[in-house]
């Protein structure tokens, strides 16, 4: 599948569909903290081991932003894990084919979600070109702590394993009754 088709596939919100529709997910308290950071910060990094829910959290954030009235075309999601394209190619496609204009200098907020960013060794250089733009928000995830991002003044949020209470709630137990 070409990178164009893959990017369109991952951005089903452009066609009015929700990412998590029909899926049973557990909304952790940290999700709301991350949403608050995304709305306030220009650069948020989600770190944590594989399987902690970073990708699910990203899909939830995208659905929430659309619910809050953000134009779906102002949101880009790309996963580097699939090795379809790098961050630079994804942003170039997004600007020319979806937005039909440059994203820097726009008046509307643009939310760029990059999942498992560490699979693109040059991601920092690409992000640096946009990071000073007031309207662009980067939300990236990585299973490996991205030390190279330390110079980018990011809000770093570690996604940890479920607490025992969260585990019980996830499996349908009412903790107050135990």
At a glance:
The chain is α/β, with parallel strands linked by helices. Helices cover 35% and strands 15% of the residues. Helix 5 (123-130) links the parallel strand 3 (110-115) and strand 4.
Question: Could you describe the 3D structure shown?
Answer:
The structure is a single chain. 35% of the residues lie in helices and 15% in strands. By secondary structure, the chain is α/β, with parallel strands linked by helices. The chain has one domain (3-20, 28-177): P-loop containing nucleotide triphosphate hydrolases (Rossmann fold). It has a five-stranded parallel beta sheet, sandwiched between helices.
Could you estimate the helical fraction of the residues in percent? Answer: 25-40%
CATH superfamily: P-loop containing nucleotide triphosphate hydrolases
Strand content: 15-25%
H and E order: HHEHEHEHEEH
CATH topology type: Rossmann fold
What is the rounded Rg?
Answer: 16 Å
- The helix-and-strand class reads alpha/beta
Total tally of structural domains: 1
Question: How does the SSE layout of this entry go?
Answer:
Elements: H1 3-10, H2 29-40, E1 43-47, H3 54-67, E2 75-79, H4 87-99, E3 110-115, H5 123-130, E4 136-142, E5 155-158, H6 164-170
Parallel strand pairs: 1-4, 1-5, 2-3, 3-4
What would the keywords be for this entry?
178 residues; alpha/beta; Rossmann fold; 6 helices
């Amino acid at each position: 599948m070409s990178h164009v088709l893959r990017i369109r596939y991952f951005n089903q919100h452009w066609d009015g569909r929700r990412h998590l529709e029909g899926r049973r997910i557990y909304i952790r308290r940290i999700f709301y903290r991350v949403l608050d950071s995304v709305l306030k910060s220009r650069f948020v990094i989600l770190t944590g081991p594989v399987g902690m829910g970073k990708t699910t959290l990203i899909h939830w954030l995208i659905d929430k932003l659309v619910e809050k009235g953000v134009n779906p075309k102002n949101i880009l999601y790309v996963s580097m894990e699939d090795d379809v394209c790098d961050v630079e190619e994804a942003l170039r496609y997004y600007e020319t084919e979806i937005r039909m204009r440059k994203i820097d200098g726009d008046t509307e907020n643009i939310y760029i979600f990059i999942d498992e960013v560490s699979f693109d060794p040059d991601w920092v250089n690409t992000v640096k070109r946009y990071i000073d733009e007031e309207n662009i928000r980067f939300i990236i995830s990585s299973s490996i702590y991205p030390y190279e991002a330390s110079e980018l003044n990011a809000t770093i949020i570690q996604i940890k394993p479920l607490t025992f209470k969260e585990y019980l709630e996830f499996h349908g137990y009412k903790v107050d009754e135990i």
